[in-house]
Write a structure and sequence with these properties.
The structure holds two protein chains of two kinds.
Chain A (H helix, E strand, L loop, with lengths): L1 H11 L15 H13 L4 H15 L10 H16 L15 E7 L5 H16 L3 E5 L7 H12 L2 E3 L7 H14 L4 E5 L8 H14 L3 E7 L5 H12 L4 E5 L8 H10 L3 E5 L7 E3 L2 H8 L5 H11 L2 H13 L5 H13 L2 H7 L9 H6 L2 H12 L3 H5 L6 H11 L3 H20 L5 H18 L13
Helix pairs in contact in A: 1-2, 1-4, 2-3, 3-4, 4-11, 5-6, 7-8, 9-10, 14-17, 17-19, 19-20, 20-21
Chain B lengths: L1 H9 L2 H5 L5 H9 L1 H17 L5 H13 L4 H16 L6 H16 L14 E6 L6 H14 L4 E4 L8 H12 L3 E2 L7 H15 L3 E4 L9 H17 L6 E7 L5 H13 L3 E5 L9 H9 L3 E5 L7 E3 L2 H9 L4
Parallel strand pairs in B: 1-4, 1-5, 2-3, 2-4, 5-6, 6-7
Antiparallel strand pairs in B: 7-8
Classes of the chains: A alpha/beta, B alpha/beta.
Chain lengths: 465, 327
């Protein structure tokens, strides 16, 4: 996608070639492409207008760098401007107050407030060592309170019970008193989803806000939201003094233009991305990454950071060393690499963050799951240490033995050997930048090899919790 | 009926408001105020000021459609069509342009307005799918009530075994409407819960089974595979089941809705759509693009929090509400 945008821009900027600067008369076509790209990413129209005007101002007079073509230079301008608009760096949660620091959650129905409440509780407990209690003031949706109870049990936050018959304001007040007497550091108050035009409900949340005076009031918005994101965010911001935004359901394939809309309309920082079904799936917001997504560039940085958190650094460095030199990256090393990738939480979540994944054939995507890694590891486990070190030894007879030992077919063994060779080759070629990028590339190469081999296998996967 | 409504949509506002009988209508039109206003700002000017059709005016139309989430491709197609007709002098005044736009939208949406019909086979099985938070469980609650009022016996399958308290949520809806719910609890195998429900439905001679599923983002291959399995298992019960795979869309969704339809369809063969939360400021205009691209029937729109606020989709009313100048 990134490629396609920069190609489209390059085409639109053809008239620029031979000139050293972008100028008003030669960027009109490119501005149109940027506008379309942003609209396709669901950035609100009013924000697109303002934003493209800023980009235009900045682009005019921009020198065309010799190392980039005009299209790439233009994408860079757009990307930088996106990052600037969304706030330069990640804004952390402000908890500097007399405890308990109260966090109020607000948003439309189904935005993901309750799930985010649990994720935030876990985040604060695990990463900031806070004592966290949670309460649900959602007396409207059936079983909403029960949902928060179950989730807080799961993450180990203290759940303050509430009941459907109680007034939401009373629940919030009672919870605050409770959290105070129990010396909790943070109290998170979950609320019912509400429409911004529902005056009664908006008054209710304003009353809750007044009653408990939260230091953080977070607006949770679904990353898949369209043009309405700007309208809703403005209405909530007018009714409540919001302090930040959480962008939820970022783990899908939505481009997330809502992030730009909400930020631009409210001026409030986006503090977190909620990206996954599990309760640990809350990441600090990084504008550059979301900018890349909006432009369809994938989110390689998050991938790298996640990789760094989950991968055994020592082993990774050793692997990277072997990959760099390209020498002796044997099957034992390949096995380690596969295992590390398994640790990243399955190839799916990893893949979603890679650029160009949308264009991978679905078969390839489907086959790239944990079961595949596991099977590959099992095949390697059925080899002798000598075979692992010298894959060239593996002849037809050995292949049959390995296949029998691992409960696979000879074709599977062949495929694994082929993928290993390819990983070696790809690694040698792309050996300049950070270690994890390499792993990711190797994976991509592997997936292409996998997609070529045979029909996809039906596999029943149990849902991971 | 269609025609008269289409015409009503196309004529100036005063006569259009007359003879709008159903409350469904007024609800929907109220709920679409937002969209209407967006489009109205262009149309309204045009009607009041009797402006000539010029590039600026066409651009305003384009803007209005984009701001309603209609999407770049569909908007371009619609506006280009209008431009061609303007250049052929088929449309010479603003009223004709307005009428042409309304007619064009109705022509796209009318073929997909088709209510849920309960077939002859018992039980008639509806599998409800969608991304997280679109309102699947709530829709099932309201739909159970509606079907019950129409005289059908209904059984609910608590197939969302993943989200905390989803089973309790559905059970609560069941209790409110006096409709039995088959559940195994959280963490159970969704396909197995639904299979059990089908067995129970057969034994009890129930008319309709509504099967809830966990919300899942369409990019999650593993979860989509799980959905395929659910459908396969249902097929083992009766070859024709599920009779309906209903994809629920949130009215607030943007262009990602197209990907949702495409991916869910690829996985389990979506047969129809429902749009929820149309009572807010969200415009739901992406339906135009979806109708143009996929032609899937739209069964329901959710226009409010109340249990009665689930309405059959009426294309003419939708477009009329969309285009009627501001209140």
């Amino acid at each position: 996608m990134f490629d396609s945008l920069s190609e489209r821009l390059t085409a639109a900027l053809r008239s620029v070639s031979g000139r050293s600067r972008l100028a008003e008369d030669n960027i009109a076509g490119a501005m149109r492409e940027v506008r379309v790209a942003l609209l396709e990413a669901d950035v609100a129209l009013s924000v697109v207008r303002r934003f493209t005007e800023e980009v235009r101002q900045r682009a005019i007079g921009q020198e065309i760098n010799a190392s980039l073509n005009a299209g790439q230079a233009f994408v860079q301008v757009v990307h930088e401007e996106l990052v600037r608009t969304m706030g330069e760096a990640n804004d952390a949660l402000n908890l500097a107050t007399n405890p308990p620091a109260v966090v109020l959650m607000a948003g439309l129905q189904g935005a993901g407030k309750t799930a985010t409440t649990a994720k935030l509780a876990r985040h604060l407990m695990e990463r900031e060592r806070k004592r966290v209690s949670v309460v649900s003031a959602d007396v409207h949706r059936p079983a909403a309170i029960e949902q928060l109870r179950a989730l807080s049990d799961e993450v180990g936050a203290r759940f303050i019970p509430s009941a459907v018959g109680e007034a939401p304001v009373a629940i919030a007040k009672r919870a605050l008193a409770d959290a105070r007497t129990r010396f909790d550091d943070v109290l998170i108050v979950d609320t019912a989803g509400r429409l911004a035009i529902d005056e009664r409900m908006m008054a209710e949340i304003a009353q809750i806000h007044a009653a408990i005076d939260p230091i953080e009031t977070l607006f949770v918005v679904d990353a898949m939201t369209g043009q309405d994101a700007a309208i809703t965010a403005k209405a909530f911001n007018d009714a409540l003094p919001l302090t930040g935004v959480v962008l939820a359901k970022v783990d899908g394939d939505a481009r997330g233009g809502a992030a730009l809309s909400v930020r631009s309309v409210t001026g409030k920082p986006i503090k977190f991305l909620a990206a996954g079904e599990k309760t640990d799936a809350l990441e600090p917001f990084h504008p550059d990454r979301v900018a890349s997504r909006i432009l369809g560039m994938g989110d390689v940085l998050t991938l790298i950071e996640e990789a760094e958190r989950k991968v055994d650094q020592r082993k990774a460095r050793r692997l990277a060393g072997k990959l760099t030199t390209g020498r002796k990256f044997d099957l034992a090393d390949y096995r380690e690499q596969l295992q590390q990738m398994g640790n990243l939480g399955g190839a799916e979540s990893l893949l979603e963050k890679l650029p160009g994944v949308g264009m991978l054939p679905e078969q390839a995507r489907a086959r790239l799951d944990e079961a595949l890694f596991r099977r590959m590891i099992v095949i390697i486990d059925s080899m002798t240490p000598r075979e692992r070190r010298f894959p060239d030894l593996i002849d037809g007879s050995r292949k049959r033995r390995i296949a029998a030992g691992s409960g696979t077919q000879v074709q599977d063994v062949n495929r694994l050997l082929k993928q290993h060779r390819q990983t070696q080759k790809v690694a040698k070629k792309t050996m300049r930048k950070g270690g994890m990028q390499r792993l990711a590339r190797g994976l991509e190469a592997g997936s292409q090899a996998a997609s070529r081999g045979g029909p996809p296998r039906r596999r029943q996967r149990r849902r991971r919790r | 009926m269609w025609k008269s409504k289409a015409r009503a949509a196309a004529t100036p506002p005063k006569s259009a408001g007359d003879g709008a009988p159903a409350s469904a209508w007024s609800r929907l039109s109220r709920s679409l105020t937002r969209t209407r206003r967006q489009i109205a700002s262009g149309i309204g000017d045009l009607l009041r000021g009797q402006r000539a059709i010029d590039a600026e005016l066409l651009e305003e139309l384009e803007t209005s459609l984009l701001a309603a989430d209609v999407g770049v491709a569909a908007t371009d197609r619609i506006v280009d069509g209008l431009k061609k007709r303007v250049s052929r002098r088929e449309l010479t005044d603003t009223t004709a342009l307005h009428a042409a736009l309304a007619a064009e939208l109705v022509a796209i949406l009318a073929p997909v307005a088709s209510p849920l019909v309960i077939g002859a086979e018992r039980p008639h099985v509806v599998l409800v799918v969608g991304v997280n938070g679109v309102g699947k469980t709530t829709l099932i609650g309201k739909l159970a009530r509606r079907l019950g009022a129409e005289g059908h016996s209904v059984l609910l399958a608590a197939g969302d075994t993943f989200r905390a308290a989803a089973v309790e949520q559905l059970a609560e809806w069941g209790a409110r409407n006096n409709v039995p719910v088959i559940a195994q609890g959280q963490g159970a195998d969704s396909a197995s819960v639904i299979f059990d429900t089908l067995t129970a439905a057969k034994a009890r001679g129930v008319d309709v089974v509504l099967a809830d599923t966990a919300g899942r983002l369409q990019a999650k291959t593993g979860l989509m595979e799980e959905l395929r399995k659910i459908k396969r298992v249902m097929g083992r019960h009766a070859a024709s089941a599920p009779h309906e795979v209903l994809l629920v869309l949130d009215a607030g969704v943007g262009q990602n809705a197209l990907s949702q339809v495409r991916e869910f369809d690829k996985a389990v063969g979506v047969t129809s759509l429902a749009v929820t939360k149309l009572d807010g400021t969200a415009k739901g205009g992406v339906l135009v693009a979806i109708a143009a691209n996929f032609g899937l029937p739209v069964r329901f729109v959710g226009v409010g929090e109340g249990i009665l606020d689930l309405q059959p989709f009426d294309a003419a009313a939708f477009v009329h509400a969309l285009l009627r100048p501001g209140d």
